[in-house]
Amino acid sequence: MSPLFVMVALRLPRNSQYAKGRSWNAPPAGGSWQELHIYRWHPESAEPPRIDSYWIDRNRCGPMVLDALHLIRNELDPTLAFRRSCREGICGSCSMNIDGENGLACLRKLGDGASALRLFPLPHMRVIRDLVPDLSGFFKHYQAQMPYLQAAPPRGGVEHRQSPADRNKLDGLYECILCACCSSACPSYWWNEETFPGPAALLQAQRWVEDSRDEHGDERLDTIAAHQGVYGCRQILNCAKACPKGLNPAQAISALRRRLLARP
Ligand code: SF4
Ligand code: SF4
Ligand code: FES
């Protein structure tokens, strides 16, 4: 009998392909201008996503990508959606893909104007609108790590004490601002977002496992060992490369693995 071949028509959803959009504020000759190509998509529109081109006058704009986004929204196109809060790399809300790399718009400088800067929402996240990704799955994994101190109240109404040496063990862990740049750059998270917590959530897990004041380390390790836990990580190190705070989630994941292996 001849083998049975089944033909499958593979089609990308219509909304996964973007079209060329509108050009805003094309400049006169001369001057100092920067072009930005920005992903636009509105959930209530039947139109597929598009890439709009915006020109900004560098002499009227601050030095950062976030400055350009503010200028665009304030003066050219009030319908452009993006997140931001602190504008100094603290809140993590302005994370996006800038010229092919995940980063924070408030910490990334505009180019020299020689080529257009490309702004997309964080990759492999569902898009709410324009540059705003849906982070509900990301925060579900964060919440599952119980990211708070779990310890009985100290006797005598004093604070939980920690030696300087134990406090130093939290360096490189506590600084995470939950921007999701690492998780949305992680191939293991792309393919297994339900079962693999991703680098950010695992770095947070290690932050609490390592905390000398916490009394629930074993339960935390049980949570991590469940499903793919730390074993979903292939040590590709995209996470460390993507982190705008210079953290290394892959290293934290290795430390968790060593703890799990050392358990009786
Ligand atoms: S090292 Fe692990 S967590 Fe980091 S990007 Fe690679 S697979 Fe993801
Ligand atoms: S580890 Fe770095 S990239 Fe990942 S969420 Fe925290 S600050 Fe962002
Ligand atoms: S606006 Fe807060 S990190 Fe960029």
What's the overall average pLDDT, rounded? Answer: 92
The major sheet is characterized as: 6 strands, mixed
What is the CATH H-level superfamily of the largest domain? Beta-grasp domain
- What's the CATH class label of the largest domain? Alpha Beta
Rg is: 22 Å
Report on this model:
The protein is 27% helix and 15% strand. It is of the alpha/beta class. The longest helix has 14 residues, at 249-262. The termini are far apart. Bound molecules: iron/sulfur cluster (2 copies) and FE2/S2 (inorganic) cluster (FES). The site of one iron/sulfur cluster (SF4) has 13 residues, from α7 and α8.
In a few lines, what is going on in this structure?
The chain is an alpha/beta fold. It is built from eight helices and eight strands.
List the helices and strands and how they pair.
Elements: E1 19-24, E2 33-40, E3 50-57, H1 65-76, E4 95-98, E5 101-104, E6 117-120, E7 127-129, E8 132-133, H2 136-144, H3 164-168, H4 187-191, H5 199-209, H6 217-225, H7 238-242, H8 249-262
Parallel strand pairs: 1-3, 2-6
Antiparallel strand pairs: 2-3, 4-5, 4-6, 7-8
Helix pairs in contact: 2-5, 5-6, 5-8
The structure holds iron/sulfur cluster (2 copies) and FE2/S2 (inorganic) cluster.
